[in-house]
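for the writeup, i need someone to sanity check this before i put it in the appendix. the sequnce is what the collaborator sent (i think, or maybe the updated version? ugh). structure was predicted straight from it, no edits. if anything looks off just tell me and ill rerun, i have time this weekend
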Amino acid sequence: MDGRRGQLPSRIPNNEDGDGSLKNWYTRTGSNRRPIRCKRTALPLSYSCTAGREAGRRFPEDQAKSDAGLRVGRGGGLFPARMHLRLSDQELATLVEMVSLAANVASWNQKETANDQVAAFENLESKILEKAGHSGLGDWIEFDEESQRFRVKAEKEESLFYHECYEEFRNESFWDELAVRLADRDLARAIGFAEWEKLSEEDRRARTVAWEKRYWEEFSKRGVERVTVITPPTEG
């Protein structure tokens, strides 16, 4: 379970109130500024547990490397100018699933700084899907007028392995995050936020074992049936 979590400090924002309260520290920042690709999967599947170089300018040394069949990457590394792959029909189908899975996951990155990279994922996905549609997978692929990109047909997507992987990832990560965040909240309430901040990730995990176990047992038996938000009277 720990291997799926990542580091808690990277997902828990600082308390900006400056008053030592727990008001904001365990919530995600930001909002869904960009629509998620799979709107129909907005909820869990189930309730069970170039530094120094001017853009576009060619330098003599770069030209020489290009003439040799190499191109210069942004980090200065050398790469083949082109790459040709020969794929079997099955390998092509697997590639379509892999790039679609990657683009679906990337679309959940809602940071404004991620927009260009998410678009790069989606553009490459569209390019590969377009080629695949002309290479024997025409019954898989369609052109989406709204996004102006190629995509896997919805009726086909639901039967593919990558769709199963995507839904399982979302389902598992939802329950894992929910249990861990609630356990961390309980620990911070018990010892105080200042003391919680001093703990290492390893110490936090060790001290929340009992809380996490309790939440996992609850969610495994009842899902979110008994999860309730109690609004203070002062908030109406």
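The first strand starts at residue 70 and ends at 72. DSSP finds eight helices and four strands in the chain.
thx in advance!!
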